[in-house]
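== Sequence, structure tokens ==
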Amino acid sequence: MSEISRGGTAYATPDDRRRRLATILADLIPGAARIRVSLRAPAESWPHPHARAYDIHGSRIELKRAQVHAAARWIMRAHPETPWNESYDFDLTRAELTPAARTAGRLNLAGQGC
């Protein structure tokens, strides 16, 4: 893992942190290939961190409430520059965040918005 040292303290690069996050989320949600994150939970009328997980075939994986909140918050904190007014997909194999509208067709997730 590459690190940047400042005054004797080592800091991981943003890419390293995102890769570690992807590894942790893959352990937290076994079988998940992609996590869709937004500030629009289906049952809430106000902004609320929300996540849904999908396997490599695009099938939704049921999550517990704690998994939903932890995954959404961790991904949002790892990407503070992202405008969270739309849904995004976090690919656990590449540790990349992309707009959900771009990845929906590839995984047959159209109509299964966050």
About this structure: DSSP finds three helices and seven strands in the chain. The two ends are 33 Å apart (CA to CA).
